[in-house]
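Lecture notes, part 5. Sequence design as translation. It can be helpful to think of inverse folding as translation between two languages: the language of shapes and the language of residues. The source text, in structure tokens, appears below.
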């Protein structure tokens, strides 16, 4: 069993421009670097043993800043990368809705099978991230691991644990820039979502 604390990477220029990033490898903005440093100050008081990061630059940069501030080791797992949004990457969702509103509505209606054109389904993301946690459980048994990943990944994990459907009527659960605590013992269990928020 391992305890997991999940956070999203700090901000990038595309976050600030509200562009879909997905698998596109975007670095942190200067504001994001400052944000990661603030996370380091906040999380130093938490009893983390190590950091596990997505390989994408925005997550690795965040994790490196945290590792330096917190004085704990950093590992990278490629299966923690963001969902691939295919043809939608680099665009704003408002632009996509204007160009092809039916395509967006169709994908949003598919729930767990949501898959942007040329991209990756939520089910596929869940499968690969589960493999990352299986590996982590062997490496970090009974430890508390800070996981630096992406918003879609975090949402997929928490929604699966809560048996949510990604239906349009489900109220949003996750607040921006929060730490979420989970347990992994072969399945993912929620301890507390939105427990600690970066201010």
């Amino acid at each position: 069993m391992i305890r997991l604390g999940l956070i999203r990477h700090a901000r990038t220029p595309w976050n600030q421009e509200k562009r879909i990033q997905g698998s596109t490898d975007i670095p942190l903005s200067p504001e994001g670097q400052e944000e990661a440093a603030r996370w380091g100050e906040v999380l130093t008081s938490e009893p983390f043993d190590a950091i596990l990061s997505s390989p994408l630059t925005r997550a690795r940069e965040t994790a490196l800043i945290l590792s330096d501030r917190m004085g704990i080791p950093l590992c990278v797992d490629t299966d923690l990368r963001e969902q691939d949004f295919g043809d939608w990457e680099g665009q704003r969702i408002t632009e996509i809705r204007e160009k092809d509103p039916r395509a967006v509505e169709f994908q949003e209606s598919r729930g767990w099978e949501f898959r942007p054109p040329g991209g990756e389904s939520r089910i596929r993301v869940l499968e690969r991230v589960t493999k990352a946690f299986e590996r982590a459980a062997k490496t970090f048994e009974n430890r508390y691991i800070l996981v630096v990943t992406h918003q879609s990944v975090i949402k997929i994990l928490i929604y699966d644990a809560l048996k949510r459907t990604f239906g349009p009527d489900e109220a949003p659960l996750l607040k921006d820039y929060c730490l979420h605590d989970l347990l992994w013992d072969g399945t993912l269990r929620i301890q507390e979502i939105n427990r600690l928020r970066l201010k």
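The translated text above is only one of many valid answers, since several sequences can fold into similar shapes. Residues 49 and 155 are 24 Å apart (CA to CA).
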